[in-house]
Amino acid sequence: MNWLTLICSFGIPSILLGLVVKCIAACVALKRGVQVMLRCQLVQLYDRWINEEAIPYSIKQLFEDMYSQYEKLGPNGVMDQMHEDFKNRPTDTKTMK
Question: Hey, is 97 helix, strand or coil?
Answer without folding.
Answer: coil
